[in-house]
Amino acid sequence: MSKHERHAMDDDGESIVLVERTGPVATITLNRPETRNAFNRALRKRVLAALQELEAVSDLRVIIVTGAERGFSAGADLKAGVQGDVRTQLLDEYAPILLALRHTDRVVLAAVNGAAAGIGVALVAAADLAIMADDASMQLAFSRIALVPDGGLTWELVRALGYKRAFRLMVEGGRLDAKQCLDFGLVNEVVPAAHLMSAAHDWAKRLCKLSPLCNGLTKRALHHAQHSHLEAAIAYEADLQQVAARSADCREGIDAFINKRPAEFPGR
Q1: Looking at 208, 228, 245, which one is the last position of a domain?
Q2: Which of 1, 68, 162, 167 could form a disulfide with 33 if both were Cys (CB 3.0 to 4.6 A apart)?
């Protein structure tokens, strides 16, 4: 596989987002380690730009999102201050990132190293899959500075944890260790910290062997099902199945199944 690496620079020339591509897998690394990868305006801008650029890569199948060095993301950079028009900031700068992760047909895999806090937790929640280091954690510290959980976390966590656990976690500014995150379904796997990225890349390689068309359509179906009734879900599945059944991936999958060989999905 060919390997390509790009550094997304901020105005001062600092590599605040690292994008590394190995064949059909791209890794986005938040790279403000001195702040535990906290989000300031520049980081928000660069992450969104990286996602938009990757969306244009036709043969990309998996996007890994992680943080540099000791932490995944400490959330918003409080040293930058709380913007007076925070609503506009959330809707114009954070929401496009979170929605881009949800709306891409690529599989998004969060590799959670160290602490994920605040909007960092929202980033993990927006991913399709998540693998977590055994010494990592998630924290909802909004209430400690008299703020409300944002980035879609109320929507995500009430579904994952149930109302009472979600409410307690949020109002008490609680912390979840890796085992709790696994038990509550917030992540799929917990691995030793030293093996996190190798495990993430191994998983990404396995995902790349699956049909990217099927992966993307299944992702759309699940997101639709979260806010629709049964009849609507059945109808939407039928629409997507029509697309899948006419695809080269489906023809390849059936031929491989009949001839008892590994499938090589072209992704169309």
Answers
A1: 208
A2: 68
